[in-house]
C-alpha cells in the first residue's frame, strides 16, 4: 500500500509553472528520495503536502484518503529553512511543537524525555535556541519533527549543518523510524545519502517528474554493460564485440581496465575471452551511481 499518492498536481505562480502535472506514489514504510536541482519544484510539492499552500490542480491522498486538515497531525515536517524560535528555551520549544501536533502536556513531556535522553541533551533544557550551535539546533528541530510519532515524515535536507558523527546519529534514527512503521520522504542534494538510505526515488526537473521507481530498478535501467577488470599484463579486445573505456595502473604491477560489451554477448562470454587474453585477478560490473544518473537526466532532459 502507498502512504502518499500525488495525482496530477500542478501549481502556477503568475507566469511561472512550479509543478506541471506531477504524479508520485510513495510506498508505506519506505525511505523515498525526492531529488532534483534547485528550483525544480521539490519544495513547492512538499509545501502542498503540508497544506502550507494549495495546488491549482490535482489530488493528494494520505493512506487512500484525500488530504484534509486533520492529516497534519500524522505528518512530521523538517523544513530546509528550519523554524525554531530563537528566544525560546529548548524545553519550552519542544513542548510548544508537541502541543501544536495534538499531544497533551503530560504526553509531550514523556516523549520529550525519551528523545532528550536518547540524544544526551538533558542539560540543554533551559538553553535558548540562539545560544546553540547550528548542529545542536538541528537536533532540537529533528526531535520536534518526530516526537509526535508521525506516520509520514518529510525531511528537507535533513543533514545540513551536521558533522559526520551527528549525521550518522540522524541516519540511524531515520532507519529506526522506518523499522517502527514510519514512511520517510527526504529531499536532498547529497547523492551518497540517497545511495545509502533510499528504497525508492523520484527526480523532478523543471517542474516535471522525469523519473520514479525503486532505486535498484532505476540503477539497473541505466546499466551500460560495462565491466571492471583487474588484471596483470596488457591486452586488447576492442572490435565489434567490445570497447575499452579506460585503463589505470594499480599497485604491484596490476592494471584496471573498463570494458563495455557492444554486441549481444554476456558477462560469461567476456570472461571467457579475457581468460585467453590476460591474467585476471578481479571482475565486476560497473553499476552507475545515483549521482551519475542524476547528472545524465538533468543535463540530458526527460526520461519519460
Question: Layout of SSEs?
Answer:
Elements: E1 2-13, E2 16-27, E3 31-35, H1 42-49, E4 57-62, E5 65-66, E6 75-78, H2 90-100, H3 105-118, H4 134-146, E7 152-156, H5 164-179, E8 183-187, H6 191-197, E9 200-205, E10 208-214, H7 215-221, E11 226-232, E12 242-249, E13 255-261, H8 267-275, E14 279-285, H9 290-300
Parallel strand pairs: 3-8, 3-9, 6-7, 7-8
Antiparallel strand pairs: 1-2, 1-4, 4-5, 9-10, 11-13, 11-14, 12-13
Determine the structural class based on helices, strands and strand pairing.
alpha/beta
Radius of gyration: 24 Å
Query: How much of the residues is beta strand, in percent?
Result: 25-35%
Unreliable sequence segments:
none
Widest β-sheet, arrangement of strands: 6-7-8-3-9-10
What's the mean pLDDT score?
91
* Largest pleated sheet: 6 strands, mixed
Overall CATH architecture of the largest domain: 3-Layer(aba) Sandwich
| Strand/helix succession | EEEHEEEHHHEHEHEEHEEEHEH
Reading off the top of the CATH hierarchy, the class of the largest domain is best stated as Alpha Beta
N- and C-termini, Cα separation: 24 Å
How many H/I helical runs?
Answer: 9
Sum up the overall morphology in one term.
elongated
Question: How many strand units?
Answer: 14
Instruction: Return the domain count.
Output: 2
Q: Could you walk me through the main structural features you see in this protein, from its secondary elements to its overall organization?
A:
The protein is α/β, with parallel strands linked by helices and 304 residues long. It has 2 domains: 2-220, P-loop containing nucleotide triphosphate hydrolases (Rossmann fold), CATH 3.40.50.300; 224-286. The chain contains 9 helices and 14 strands. The strands form 3 sheets. Strands 6-7-8-3-9-10 form a 6-stranded mixed sheet, with helices on both faces. The protein has a 4-stranded antiparallel sheet with strand order 2-1-4-5, with helices on one face. A 4-stranded antiparallel sheet has the order 12-13-11-14, covered by helices on one side. It is elongated and about 75 Å long.
Amino acid at each position: 500500500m502507498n502512504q502518499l499518492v500525488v495525482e496530477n498536481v500542478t501549481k502556477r505562480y503568475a507566469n511561472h509553472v512550479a509543478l506541471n502535472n506531477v504524479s508520485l506514489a510513495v510506498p508505506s514504510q519506505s525511505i523515498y528520495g525526492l531529488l532534483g536541482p534547485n528550483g525544480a519544484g521539490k519544495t513547492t510539492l512538499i509545501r502542498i503536502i503540508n497544506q502550507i499552500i494549495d495546488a491549482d490542480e490535482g489530488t493528494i491522498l494520505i493512506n487512500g484518503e484525500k488530504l484534509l486538515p486533520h492529516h497534519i497531525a500524522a505528518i512530521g515536517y523538517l523544513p530546509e529553512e528550519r523554524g525554531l524560535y530563537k528566544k525560546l528555551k529548548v524545553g519550552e520549544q519542544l513542548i510548544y511543537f508537541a502541543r501544536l501536533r495534538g499531544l497533551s502536556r503530560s504526553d509531550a513531556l514523556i516523549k520529550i524525555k525519551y528523545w532528550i535522553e536518547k540524544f544526551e541533551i538533558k542539560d540543554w533544557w533551559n538553553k535558548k535556541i540562539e545560544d546553540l550551535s547550528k548542529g545542536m539546533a538541528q537536533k532540537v528541530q529533528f526531535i520536534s519533527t518526530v516526537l509526535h510519532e508521525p506516520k509520514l515524515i518529510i525531511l528537507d535536507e535533513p543533514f545540513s549543518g551536521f558533522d559526520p558523527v551527528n549525521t550518522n546519529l540522524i541516519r540511524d534514527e531515520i532507519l529506526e523510524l522506518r523499522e517502527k512503521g514510519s514512511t520517510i520522504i527526504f529531499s536532498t542534494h547529497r547523492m551518497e545519502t540517497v545511495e545509502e538510505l533510499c528504497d525508492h526515488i523520484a527526480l523532478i526537473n523543471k517542474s516535471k517528474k522525469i523519473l520514479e521507481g525503486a532505486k535498484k530498478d532505476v540503477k539497473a535501467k541505466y546499466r551500460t554493460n560495462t565491466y571492471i577488470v583487474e588484471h596483470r599484463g596488457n591486452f586488447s579486445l576492442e572490435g565489434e564485440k567490445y570497447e575499452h573505456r579506460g585503463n589505470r595502473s594499480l599497485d604491484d604491477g596490476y592494471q584496471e581496465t573498463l570494458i563495455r560489451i557492444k554486441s549481444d554477448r554476456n558477462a560469461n562470454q567476456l570472461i571467457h575471452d579475457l581468460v585467453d587474453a590476460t591474467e585476471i585477478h578481479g571482475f565486476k560490473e560497473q553499476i552507475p551511481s545515483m549521482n551519475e544518473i542524476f547528472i545524465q537526466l538533468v543535463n540530458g532532459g526527460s526520461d519519460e
